[in-house]
Amino acid sequence: MNHSYPIFTADAECQDCFKCVRHCPVKAIKVEGGHASVMPELCIACGHCVEVCPAHAKKIRDDLERTKQLIQRDVPVYVSLAPSWVSEFKGLPFAKMIAALKRLGFAGVSETALGAQIVSSEVSKLLKHQKKGVVISSACPVVVDFVRKYLPEFTDCISPLLSPVLSHAKMLHETIKGKIKVVFAGPCIAKKNEADSHPDLIATAILFPRLRQWFKEAGIDPWTLEPTKEDYFIPQSAEEGALYPIEGGMNETIRLHGGCDHIHFATVCGISALRQMLEGLSPLDIKEPVFIEALACIGGCVHGPGTGHGSPGLLERLRITRNSEWKNEIPARELIDIQMDYAQSPVLSDQNVSLQELRQALRIVGKTKLEDELNCGGCGYDTCINFAKALLSGKAEPCMCVSYLRQLSQKKSNAILRCIPAAVVIVDRSLRLIECNKRFAELSGEEALQIYEMIPGMAGTVLEKLVPFADLFDRVLQNGEELKRDMLRVNNRLLSINIFNIDPGQVVGAILFDVTNVEFRREQIAARAREVIQKNLATVQDIACKLGEHMAETEILLRSIAENYADNKE
Length: 570
Hints:
Blueprint: E1 7-9, H1 19-23, E2 29-32, E3 35-38, H2 48-52, E4 58-60, H3 64-72, E5 77-81, H4 85-88, H5 94-103, E6 108-111, H6 113-128, E7 133-136, H7 141-150, H8 164-175, E8 181-186, H9 190-197, E9 204-207, H10 208-217, H11 249-257, E10 264-269, H12 271-278, E11 289-295, H13 313-322, H14 355-364, H15 384-393, H16 402-419, E12 423-428, E13 433-436, H17 438-444, H18 446-454, H19 470-479, E14 483-490, E15 493-503, E16 507-514, H20 516-569
Parallel strand pairs: 5-6, 5-8, 7-11, 8-9, 10-11
Antiparallel strand pairs: 1-4, 2-3, 12-13, 12-16, 14-15, 15-16
Helix pairs in contact: 6-8, 6-11, 14-15, 17-18
């Protein structure tokens, strides 16, 4: 578990659903031991895995304690407040928001949109001289990392400028006298990466939900505060830069500068859309001058992973435009140097694996033929080939393949059913077979056995056509109580049957034993026992008779001897 990276997994809460793998646009998830963890070297911090995790096992690094420690020091700490706050804190006047942040201990509050205005001004200068080729905005750090890692050939096309938040932080450091610290508050997880890579400009980054919680813990209700004349944005309020959180907002501000009528402006939201736009192209293929405002979040920053998502996207957009005021002409402003060079950081490709290695990996999950490759996407990868590559790279496990698990389960159940000497059958609520073993088919008759030979398991066969006691199964399905009959006479057979619930009211199973021979042997043993008993009784009686005769003769003899003895004595 890597808690130093902005996104990590709480293993104890990960539920083996692999939903994060399915939604990660760059497959920066490694599944090991059934737990899905983020791979920082592949991740672009878009936050999709955090948003979709049903068990909330994907966590965002909490920088609140570090922020509190900064405030307790002697160096004043200022907030760079993302312009999307007007949608997150609906209806809250800016003065009350500033007052609430100051109550937390911040020295002042400034709008990140001021940095956006600086960026727009520099981009407009760049585009005025653009004759051909594509320029990709550097405003979104997620997009920048995606291009550097996954479309490295377009890295030189990224506008060579700092992002709005870094530009704003640099402006604050240069404008405010003395040493200060800047903390970003907004909707973007990737800003934590920017803070980590530029600690001289941004000390920490906290997200709106954590800021809301901080207000609650501190007993501060921003809506009930009474602001003072000192509660205003420093050094001044932003204007057109406040449009940056919505798609197309950056392009709109650049157009206001003029001189870019020859540029083809494009707006793209979402990593998948950006990939679809550029993948397969070379920068040299673009003959017209094109500027791409690229945002990782659908709808723009206003719908980022660090927002509450409490409103429809249209309302969020309207809140931004409603609270943005600017002039038709951009006034002259003091600019700062925000030049920035971006270097490629391509991830290791898994495209060089051999066909033999792929086939071996696919064989592990039971895919030996082309028709076995369902490409269902259940594992999180769009094709079975890509899943095999993930297996080979150690990012995936065989248990992620749904069809493999089903086949494995089927094989195990079939093996168990085959090995059980008893007859076994499983039926659904409509009394149709789900599964049975060969012994059940044999008990059901020659015709059933022929069906079983053609369709092992006889799935879908109507139970009433096989056995005359289907009503017993229906009874268990209806009342949910298991049923056991030690001896059930069916034609010339005696059966012992135990019907039990698998899914109450939906699926039941039964185990049947043919006890005919057992009962027959029992009758034979009983008859033989009775015969032995009769013989023993006859023998006893014969012995008794003979003993009686012998006793009578003995008595006569003894009496004769006694009489003779008495006569002689006299």
